[in-house]
Amino acid sequence: MSKKSVFMCVLTIIMVAYYGFAMTVTSRMAATDTLTGLDVTLSDPDSRFVSVPDVVIETGVDPDTLTACLRRNFDLRALEERLNASDKLQSANVTLHSNGRVHVDVTPMVPVARVFEPGKPSYYINATGKRISAELRYHIDVPVLVGRFDSVHPARRLLPLLDYIASHPKAGAMVATVTQEADGNIIIVPNIVGHVVNFGDTSRVSEKFALLREFYRKVAPVKGWNTYDTIAVKWRGQVVATRRNKAVAPMPLPTVEEQTGSLDINDNETVAKSSPDEAV
Question: Fewest CB atoms less than 10 Å from the CB: which of 4, 66, 107, 174?
């Protein structure tokens, strides 16, 4: 047998012995290796809806006893699934770092509206329609939805409207409450008191807000802010307003057309037609 062959045999024996020793040591370490702590990170540290202590509670993990848990027995996937199922969290990612600390990175749920249904506890919904439990300690400044919602007219059908309100501050400043009637008509109660706005459905949201804005600029100051009780923008390219006191004859005011040349006012039904170029 050559020296090279002898060397290779000896080297092989050493490697096998080392491998066996390493496996034994690793197995013993794994049997006694425990976690060292829990870290929680919020994607939005300024969230008013979810705090770090809230997330810790949602994990169901006691940080004080976590250090007694063996790494090999800790189910990361189950914890991640638990957090993703929470109605307070948009998403969650759980990882175990080499130092033994469990890291939880979460994106808090962002409510876009609070829903009130007769005889039922109120709740929030997010941009995808997911329900979020409403708790007394939370006070989120979001539009309020009021009405009876079912499988035909669910609350999530209003999401395109709410999304527009959330992304357009000028539109959001106009809206106090959104309600849904039994026939599905969406009614907006604006911050400008004294009337309601029949929005119809969630089609052409940008156009409808532009029509409403134009009505506030060019019709209401002339006709009077308390003249109408309902402003309807549900029809394409026009605003239809209903008089508050239909028995009172129209005031002899100049039409907006005479003043601006942009609107056509009919006092019998108060129809203002317009083609706004831009949204609110």
Answer: 4
The span from the CA of 78 to the CA of 38, in Å, is: 15
CA distance 205 to 162: 10
Chain Cα centroid distance, residue 72: 37
pLDDT in tens, 32-68: 588 888 999 999 888 877 889 989 999 988 888 888 8
Q: Helix, strand, coil shares of the chain as percentages rounded to 5?
A: 35, 25, 40
- Please, how many CA atoms are within 13 Å of residue 159, restricted to the half-sphere of its CB? 13
How many Cβ atoms are within 10 Å of 185's Cβ, its own excluded? 16
- Give the residues across from 187 on adjacent strands: 179, 198
pLDDT of residue 246: 55
**Distance between CA atoms of residues 189 and 175, nearest Å:** 6
Lowest mean pLDDT among 1-5, 64-68, 103-107, 206-210: 1-5
